[in-house]
Amino acid sequence: MPYQKHTVTRDPVAPVLLVALEDASDVGNARAGAVRALLQHATRQPWASFDSDQMIDYRTSPPTLATAGLLTSGISWPEIRLELTSDAYQQDWLLLHGPSPTHQWRSFSAELAQLASQANARLAVTLGATSAPVPHTRPCRVLAASTTTGLVEHLDPYSRAPLTVTAEIEHALAWRLGAEGVPAVSLSAQVPSYLANAPYPPASAALLDTFSAISGLSVNTEPLHTAAASTQQRINEHLAADVAHTRRVRALERHFDYATNGDGRKKPTPHPQGDGLAEELSRCLSEDDPSNNCH
Q: Which of 219, 248, 265 is the last residue of a domain?
């Protein structure tokens, strides 16, 4: 059996499928932050699980070992899970989360499409993030691509011209879902390149806000916006102490504003950012080392 269906208390009604798989390339921890926020504020029940042994490389997504004194008390294996939940207005949605599979993408895509069809899913949305030459002082942009016309015209598209890029797992899933009749949208938040290696809550909040706008579901993003405001303040305090870093951000602001509201003026050139700023802010914003500070 390619996946295991779980017994649930009720069948979902026209749910929206949200795909938020995590891996080491999660820029700004955007997907991970969105998933944490969702798991904290949603009552869920397992709907389906997948064969992790066949799809996950445990060297990149290893299990965790628990010990009690000198004894091993247990081991927890990473899982890819599809869970059923609903929003404050009892609208159903399915959340696919867990480590991003490294093997059998096509088989996994077919299995997920089958499950989405069984649930009569009305829409699928995948979450992602990219590093971009944008400033943290401007609203986080979320770019979108869709398998169906009319879903993302009011959002920033990936590109208005044809292009070929390397596909991630979420793109493969969205393509197969669309081919099987489930309209799919791929969202990608733009994370400032100098913050790509640090947790960036504004990207997580922007992804979930956009998901909510597209799906019509009610999602509580207030905690993420609170964390985003705190992050912005810490970044600003750190940058204020270095004139060179401030100039880099100002140059990015001019470039961003031109790209967003371009007029007849000469297109500004982004200031080189340098690795120093990214390394400093990554250390400053790291959640793993409470001794770090931005002052």
A: 219
